[in-house]
Specification:
The complex is a heterodimer. In chain A, 52% of the residues are buried. Chain A has 11 helices and 2 strands, in the order H-H-H-H-E-E-H-H-H-H-H-H-H. Chain A is globular, with a radius of gyration of 19 Å. By secondary structure, chain B is mainly alpha-helical. Classes of the chains: A mainly alpha, B mainly alpha.
Chain lengths: 288, 371
């Protein structure tokens, strides 16, 4: 039977998926860019953290901060050196460039790290749990993942609606030409957006890398989960993306409970079902 | 697709008293020569098995099937604006339909190929309305999700080998239509004769797909499709039924892609969900072929597939490095030569072997020789 434990597990898993989705949602919203390399960039971040913690022997928290900075700079450079040249009315070039990037990163990771499964080491934190009443207990790591997702959404909302950077984001998203007339530098707004997207992906990579094994081939699947969370939640709504991630997590855990082989498939089917019933997602943005 | 005006012909009022007559042309003297040369090349390729080694035949099966897939993706994404990253779905469905037909129903493999295409088209017809709810770039990932879902569903069928896949036994293929005559014709063993037969089918598919797409993009329908891509609202306002034309294209491309998938796996005779629905093999390679050769040209995929063949011959032994190189080339081409190798040739020297552009020129009434 589908018990309360399954539901809790699904909601917590949804936190990780929401974190995958936030970075994608951010550049969807601001630049109308679909980054097909998003999943592989998450994997790249996970491997960077792995290298920094194992080779340099730095604690996970410090390594995370370091890689967040590295990935922000990488995102900024990616936009300025590569993506900027192909953004335009034609949707084909940016899709093809990010798809090429996905293949390059995936196979590059395979070359450097091999095909073996890896995992981030977080010591006692990995297996620690909080005991609830009624014989239920929640893993501390998955719980932290969900809380991190909530904090991340709240922070991004704050940046979006309470800071001048957020105003620049929203203005550029609405109309890049007018935003430029108002003195906003469109190029650096876009570059900062991609930088933030990759920085958030590092957080996603860590919450994921602690709770599950990863290998270079699983990047595209992260992209698909992120995308499903965004579309289920509704485009243009960050809180919606969080709910979308949770819906996806629930669909997967409930599917897995019925038949372990159905976990991923149930997630995909839930996405297609939402697309059929509510094509604009559960919480579509009011703006057209 | 653009309508270019031949400027030297537009001198209004140069011949007084004769009403000017405008004419839209696609063909050129060069393209007619190219057509004759293409016929000669195809005839040579048909006769090739008489002298070629089995290795070359197998390589060319790869070249023809990849060419067909690349042309199909090019018309879908390049001309139609339906940038699908999920075409592996139809390769896989076609391949699985062929295996199901041959192994469980005992249908002749040659006859099963069009049936496999029909099956892929049927699934496309069902999926289309759902995926078309996703605009532009979202459609790309949506099609990928659909392909993944279909891969997982195929892995559930235990009679088709589940997650590990299955093989066609040689005895299932021994009665294949035309096999005996191919054996007798070249004095080959059954396995080699089967490759020759599949080679001809693959060649036929590649030629039919290329001809069909050339004719289509040169037709009124092709123009309507390009208009739907460039500006759907404007296209609708002049009477183009944008939704319908894209839906039909999606289904027809799935039909042909399914047949190609069936042919590929008929030759391999072994299938698994991960291989048949592989995004790298059936979409990444295909996209790289089109990008390197040139999007929205008929010649581009031909150049691209020959480049890929060359790279595979020399680099495939390096495994992942090969894909890193290929991906990097594709990115650099998109950045610095967005129209691809053939697009660059067209731009520099104005050579168009299989033109799809319409050229507007003026003729005077009664002057038949005017261009």
């Amino acid at each position: 039977m589908i018990g309360l434990d399954t539901v809790i597990e699904g909601v917590l898993l949804g936190g990780v998926y929401a974190l995958f989705a936030l970075g994608l949602s951010l550049i969807f919203g601001i630049m109308r860019l679909v980054n097909l390399a998003h999943g592989d960039l998450i994997l790249l971040a996970a491997y960077l953290v792995l290298s920094v913690t194992t080779v340099l022997g730095i604690p996970l928290i410090v390594a995370t901060l370091l890689v967040v900075v590295v990935m922000f700079v990488a995102g900024f450079a990616l936009q300025r050196l590569v993506l900027e040249r192909v953004l335009g009315d034609d949707i084909l070039p940016p899709l093809l460039v990010t798809f090429g990037l996905s293949i390059v990163i995936q196979n590059g990771l395979l070359l450097v790290y091999g095909a073996d499964s890896r995992r981030l080491q977080a010591g006692a934190f990995e297996s620690a749990s909080v005991t609830l009443g009624g014989g239920l207990s929640i893993g501390l790591a998955p719980l932290t993942a969900l809380l991190t997702a909530i904090v991340a959404v709240a922070l991004l909302q704050l940046i979006f609606y309470r800071t001048s950077l957020g105003r620049a984001f929203r203005a550029t998203s609405d109309n890049p030409q007018i935003a430029q007339l108002m003195g906003i530098n469109e190029r650096s707004v876009y570059a900062i957006a991609v930088g933030i997207s990759l920085a958030v992906s590092v957080i996603a990579a860590i919450t994921f890398g602690i709770r599950a094994n990863f290998d270079p081939s699983i990047g595209p699947a992260r992209l698909l989960y992120a995308f499903e969370a965004v579309i289920i939640g509704g485009l243009g709504s960050l809180w919606g993306t969080l709910v979308g991630g949770i819906v996806l997590g629930l669909a997967q855990t409930i599917g897995a409970r019925i038949n372990p082989e159905w976990q991923i498939l149930s997630g995909h089917l839930a996405f297609l079902a939402v697309l059929m019933v509510r094509p604009r997602g559960l919480f579509p943005s009011r703006r057209p | 697709m653009s309508v270019t005006v031949a400027r030297d012909k537009v001198e209004i009022g140069c011949d007084k008293g004769v009403a000017p007559r405008w004419q839209v042309r696609v063909g050129t003297p060069l393209s007619r020569t190219a057509a004759i040369a293409a016929v000669a090349v195809v005839v040579a390729l048909v006769l090739l098995p008489a002298v070629a080694s089995r290795n070359l035949i197998q390589d060319l099966i790869f070249v023809f099937t990849m060419l067909a897939l690349a042309q199909l993706w090019n018309v879908l994404a390049g001309w139609g604006g339906l940038v699908s990253v999920g075409q592996q779905a139809f390769v896989g469905l076609g391949a699985y339909a062929l295996f199901a037909g041959v192994v469980t129903l005992g249908i002749d493999p040659v006859f099963a190929i069009p049936l496999a295409g029909l099956f892929a088209a049927l699934v496309a017809a069902v999926l289309g309305p759902l995926l078309f709810r996703l605009e532009g770039p979202y459609f790309a990932i949506g099609s990928w999700v659909a392909a993944e879902a279909l891969r997982l569903i195929c892995a559930q069928f235990k009679t088709l080998g589940g997650g590990t896949g299955m093989s066609i036994s040689p005895s299932d293929l021994s009665q294949m239509m035309g096999l005996k005559s191919a054996q007798a014709l070249f004095g080959l063993r059954p396995a080699a004769a089967r490759d020759v037969l599949i080679y001809w089918i693959a060649l036929l598919l590649a030629v039919a797909v290329t001809l069909g797409i050339t004719a289509f993009v040169r037709s009124r329908m092709g123009l309507a499709l390009a208009a739907s891509r460039d500006n759907a609202a404007a296209a609708r306002s002049v009477g183009v039924r944008t939704g319908r034309i894209r839906y039909l294209l999606w289904i027809v491309v799935a039909f042909a892609t399914g047949m190609v998938g069936a042919v590929v796996y008929l030759q391999k005779a072994r299938i698994s969900p991960d291989a048949a629905f592989s995004v790298t093999d059936w979409t990444a390679y295909v996209i790289f072929i089109v990008v390197i050769g040139g999007v929205r040209t008929i010649e581009g995929p031909m150049i691209g597939v020959l480049t890929l063949w060359g790279l595979i011959t020399y680099l495939a032994q390096y495994g992942s490095l090969y894909l890193v190189v290929l991906g990097t080339i594709a990115i650099l081409i998109m950045l610095f030569m967005p129209k691809g190798v053939w697009g660059e040739i067209e731009r520099r020297w104005g050579i168009r072997l299989f033109p799809t552009q319409r050229v507007l020129s003026r003729t005077s009434r009664g002057n038949e020789s005017a261009k």
